[in-house]
Design brief:
The chain has 19 helices and 16 strands. It has 553 residues and is α/β, with parallel strands linked by helices. The protein has 3 domains: 276 residues, Alpha-Beta Barrel (TIM Barrel), CATH 3.20.20; 69 residues, no CATH class; 133 residues, Double Stranded RNA Binding Domain.
Length: 553
């Protein structure tokens, strides 16, 4: 079979490394641990409701297993599993998993409180973590290697006897195997003998490299008939590559987090692992429908955890299939595979043509076509020259999609008729108690009406936004769905000090789409108003707004 760069290539032929190279599996199970391992990321905090909504999104994506947390570890996880069992979580495809540790050293599985909490969570699958490195047993647990193995066998056997499916997370397995492969393998043997269904090899510190994964997984998987899983952290930047290598060496369960969330530098990013497996290696994961939802689910979960999506994230980032250079865009117009390694639609993303000072006519024409705009040759040439002039003055349209679309619409003769500005004024008062109060007044024309509105805010932009909404909101109720989400200011020429030209970028969302608008001026209020006005106009245009009185007549 010949290689197809747009759809993955042929599977590599088996060859010898001192261990058998297994045939790639037809499919692997995807195990998401965002709700447990992912939530350990610095700055990421989920309420119980957040966890339930994230679980629903993961189920919608089509992952096979969702690790819900550690029951008994904290009140939040206790409530999550209680509500999940009580009917607040309805999973169509995924299986909920409870995570916890083996029994304590010297104790009994039947009376261990952690195992009791795992059973009380009422999940069909339990994932047990156990030390698989000699150093961690003797120095961290302060126990013996024999007792550590007994802890694994007793705990797995007890949970299996209670009707639970058990996965074993062999913590620090790769580090432990390098130091003492016999003990690390004995841990797996004990778990498998007691009835563990999957033995998950964990790179807990994230320091293992792909060639080490190839050797170790090859040696372990080539010697026994166990079902293996993998769990990689990204401290060396290799978590995705390590996951792919582990599957190549016979692993049939891949653990990770959507968007690569996790402690320190994060876990293996499933939004890269899954399409790489499915589209490149031809290993089944979440099916074509799930893949087509990947970008939407990635961004939805990012909103739920309140962490901005990374624009340059592979496969699902807004810049993943963005093309700026005129040479690239001309080629893509003829054949998309020229500069795209997979079809963007296969992962729910899309091609974007980024317009900047580097743009040629073909780039602008493709962008206009993408927006559904008809621009003649003369207008096209004018847009190109105007873009280059504006970017020379400090505008940056490749990051301001909202303002760019308004500019290109204007080239077709379109004019916004929602409102026109007569004037605006901003006053900031310093009071005796040390507080600042900002007041803005706007005078606008809407249809035949002249409207004056005044509002206070915690700064000039907030006050202007409030005043404009107060003025036109009753006429355009769609504005209630349009919210500013971010405000960024950059000084373009620091040598001018406080007189420097300022660039303002405003991010806005209506809950379904996010857009960015731009303003540039020596006066920061003027730059802010320009970006603010564009954001409101674009939002009203996007939502098909029209005067309230016209629709009521």
């Amino acid at each position: 079979m010949s290689a197809d760069p747009g759809h993955g290539g042929a599977r590599p032929a088996a060859h010898q490394h001192g261990y058998p190279l297994p045939q790639l599996p037809a499919s692997v199970d995807v195990y998401d641990t965002t709700l447990r391992d992912g939530s350990q990321q610095e700055g990421l905090s989920l309420t119980v409701d957040d966890k339930l909504r994230v679980a629903e999104q993961l189920d919608h994506l089509g992952v096979q297993y969702i690790e819900g947390g550690w029951p008994g570890a904290n009140p939040k996880d206790e409530e999550f599993f209680r509500r999940a069992a009580g009917g607040d979580l309805h999973l169509e495809t995924a299986t909920l998993v409870a995570f916890g540790s083996t029994r304590k050293a010297g104790g009994r599985a039947e009376t261990d409180p952690v195992l009791a909490d795992l059973l009380a969570a009422r999940t069909p699958v339990v994932c047990l973590v156990a030390k698989a490195a000699e150093w961690h047993v003797t120095e961290t647990l302060r126990s013996t290697l024999t007792e550590a193995i007994d802890m694994v066998a007793d705990s797995v056997g007890y949970l299996v006897s209670q009707g639970r499916r058990v996965f074993l997370d062999a913590e620090h397995f790769f580090d432990g195997y390098r130091a003492n492969p016999r003990f690390s393998t004995d841990v797996l043997t004990a778990a498998a003998g007691a009835g563990a269904e999957v033995l998950v090899l964990c790179d807990t510190n994230g320091g293992t490299l792909p060639f080490e994964v190839e050797r170790i997984v090859g040696e372990v998987g080539g010697s026994v008939d166990w079902r293996l899983g993998c769990h990689f952290h990204n401290d060396s930047g290799c978590a995705v590559a390590n996951s792919l290598m582990a599957v190549r060496m016979g692993v049939s369960q891949v653990q990770g987090c959507v968007n690569g969330y996790g402690e320190r530098t994060g876990n293996a990013d499933l939004t890269a692992v899954v399409p790489d497996l499915s589209l490149k290696m031809r290993v089944g994961t979440i099916g074509d429908e799930g893949l087509a939802r990947l970008t939407a689910v990635s961004h939805h979960i990012a909103e739920l955890v309140n962490i901005a999506p990374r624009p340059h994230q592979p496969f699902v980032g807004v810049s993943a299939f963005a093309h700026k250079a005129g040479l690239h865009t001309s080629a893509i117009a003829r054949a998309s595979a020229a500069y795209e390694h997979v079809h963007p639609q296969s992962v729910g993303n899309g091609t974007r043509f980024v317009v900047s000072e580097m743009a040629g006519r073909s780039t602008v024409a493709l962008k206009a076509e993408q927006l559904g705009l008809s621009i003649g040759d003369r207008a096209l040439a004018e847009v190109v020259e105007k873009l280059k002039d504006l970017e020379h003055r400090g505008y940056h349209y490749e990051v301001a999609d909202g303002s760019l679309e308004l500019l290109m619409r204007a080239a077709t003769g379109w004019k916004q008729t929602f409102f026109s500005l007569e004037s605006h004024r901003v006053i900031t008062d310093f009071r005796e108690d040390g507080s600042f109060v900002t007041e803005a007044t706007v005078k606008v024309i809407v249809g035949d009406d002249r409207i004056i509105a005044t509002a206070e805010g915690n700064g000039p932009v907030n006050a202007l936004d409030a005043a404009l909404r107060k003025a036109i909101g009753p006429v355009f109720p769609e504005l209630a769905h349009v919210h500013l989400t971010d405000f960024k200011v950059r000084v373009l020429d620091t040598r001018q000090g406080t007189a420097a030209v300022t660039r303002v970028l405003i991010d806005t969302s209506d809950g379904e789409r996010t857009w960015t608008t731009i303003g540039v001026s020596e006066n920061i209020i003027e730059a802010s108003w320009e970006a603010l006005q564009d954001s409101i106009v674009f939002g009203l245009l996007l939502r098909g707004a029209g005067p309230q009185q016209n629709r009521d007549s």
